[in-house]
Every structure is written in structure tokens, then in C-alpha cells.
Amino acid sequence: MKTVAIVINTAWNIYNFRLNLARALKKEGYNIVCIAPYDALYTPKIEQEFSFYPVAFDAKGMNPIKDIVTMVSLWKLYRKIKPDIVLNYTIKPNLYSTYVAKLLGIQSIVNISGLGTLFIKPSVITTIAHVLYKVALCFTCKVFFQNQDDWHLFLEKGLVSKAKCTLIPGSGVDTHSFFPRDGRDDDGTLRFVLVARMLKDKGVVEFVEAFHLLRHKYPYVQAYLLGSIGIENPTAITQEEMDSFMEEKGVVYLGSSDSVADMIATMDCVVLPSYREGIPRSLLEAAAMEKPIITTNVVGCKEVVEDGINGFLCEAKSVDSLHRAMEKMVLLPQIKRVEMGKEGRKKIVQTFDEVFVIDHYRDAIKEALNSF
């Protein structure tokens, strides 16, 4: 039995985004192992179905000593469990797991799921990341990109060979789990929600400010934030900031949830004013549930929305532009919002269903193992 290792920088990511892939590969006869930092909540859930090995990834840190420790840990683990192929996600696993796999003669597949803050705000560290990626991607057998802009950027920078690249529809979405629910009771309230990690780069501040402008003119409008706070990220929203948003701007913070579909079902529109994405899962899930969406006209987000068809696009980092888009949604007749939702569901089923992603991985793994 061939062993496939799924390597990510958080157990939460495995549980929420990669579990169905792991299950599908298990049905194909592969032995699946999951590798990520230990998480008291999500590691036990993963261990109900798969072997889990904890390895610490300093996701946002730049301490070379910690990164060397991570690589040594991966070296020891890979020698112990002897995976036949590793599937890497997020920057640190994409780099360090790929390096270690190459040294041990193990095949690897990399997923560029979004370039994040490092590429949004170019710096000396960005240049270093380019070099590290260029070396790592020489060692992979396949590189999956979630949008064409990231793919073209890597090609223009000479970071990867075009022959290794494949475009996939994000992480996909399980359209059987995220489906239209019975319409909620019309109580005269229109509810917007932003579903994401609470980071400034996700446009949280713009969303809060745009709603603050909106609520004075339309008192029946409400706004909610759903996602983890206190993330290890330089743009993370602090608890103090969140308290201020609730007290001074009137938004409601819902915390984080493993039942996102239940939360989305109670909303009228999902908003993500992000600065850059791979393909945001929250928008895929919302559209799959026939919710109209508002997002920014930036890499990763614009792929999910056809402006005026299944939602509205706005400018990134612009409170005024977002406010105008949200006001347009408020002024739409309910029947038009319903039509937008249906168009969104159609787009997801045709383009972003996770079965397409799983098929790409299944084919890539078979090709890699057969050619090795």
C-alpha cells in the first residue's frame, strides 16, 4: 500500500479543507497520514480517521533556527513513516517539506493556495521567498495553482517550469454539504456576513467601516463577522479592535465555527473585501448555498464573481467602493438577490466542485508514482 502524506501548517486547515481529499484517496487504497502542528481541537478529530503526526511549523515567523528544527523534524518523520509521496500546502510546507522529500528521494506535489501578505506587500523577504520557491519547485513533480494570476506571476519570475503547472479550481467545495437551504423567515432585516480569518488583509476594517456608513441610512441592515481571531499574522485583528468594532460600529462578532453552512444559511449576502487570495473557500461555499456575494476585483476573488450576475465586485482597500456595492445589494429586490444566488450555485457546480480538485490530485499522484 502506497503512503500519501498531507502536509499543512495547521490541523484546522486539514480538517476544514482537505478531509474529503484524504477520504477519497483512502478509498483509492492509499494509506493517508496527516502532518501539521498539534491542535487540541482538530487533531483528535483528524485521528478518528487518519494517522496524525505533529510537526511544528512557525507559519509566519522568520527565525531560521526554528525552520531548521522543522526540517530536522520532517527528516526524522519521513525516514520513520516512509511516505511514497507528500502533498504540500502553504508556504513553509511547500518549501521545507519539499526540500526534505527531495533529499530522501520522495516525490512531492505543491499547492500554491494563495500568496498572502508576503506578496501583497513586497519586501526583501519577498525576494528571499522567490529564491526559496525557485529552488523548491525544481524538486516537485507537480505544482497546482488556484488562479491564473499567481501562475503567471511564478512563470514571469522564472520560479517554476510551465510543464509542471496545472490550474485547479481552488480547494473546491463540497456541493453536497453546501447546498441551498429553505429560505429563512423574512423578518425585514438584511444580513451581511464576512467569513474569514480576522485579518486586515481580508478587508475586515473596510467591511466594518462600510457597514457603519450603511446602517445610518438603512437601520434594518445588520453585519456579522465569522472567523478566528488572534491569528499569528502581522495583520491580525486584536481582541481590543474587535471589541471596538462591536461597541462603536455595531457589527456582531460570531466567533469561529465548524458549522459554517448553518451560519451562512441565516444570512442574505456574504462579503469578502480581501486584498488577494488563492480562491477563497468562503465565497465558494456561499455561492454553493445560493447566496449572492460581494468581493474585491483582485486576484483569486474576481474568479468567483461575475459582476451583476451572482454578486458585485468592488475596489480593494476602498471603504467607499465597498459601501456602494453593499448599498446596491440592499436596494435590490429580494427576487433579484434570489436570482443572483441561483446563478452562483450554477457557477460553482460547473466550475468549482471539489470533485474536480480530487480528480486532479488522483491523476497527479498516479502519474508521479508510476514514473518514479
CATH class of the largest domain: Alpha Beta
Please identify, by name, the CATH architecture of the largest domain: 3-Layer(aba) Sandwich
Strand order of the largest sheet: 3-2-1-4-5-6-7
| Helix/strand structural class | alpha/beta
Helix content: 40-55%
Distance between the termini: 15 Å
What CATH calls the topology of the largest domain is: Rossmann fold
Mean pLDDT: 92
Round the Cα radius of gyration to an integer and report it: 21 Å
Low-confidence stretches: none
Give the overall shape, derived from the CA principal axes.
globular
Q: Identify the CATH homologous superfamily of the largest domain.
A: Glycogen Phosphorylase B
* N to C succession of SSEs: EHEHEHEHEHHEHEEHEHEHEHEEHHH
**Tally of alpha and pi helices:** 14
Beta-strand residue fraction = 15-25%
Q: How is the biggest beta sheet arranged?
A: 7 strands, parallel
Q: Quickly count the domains.
A: 2
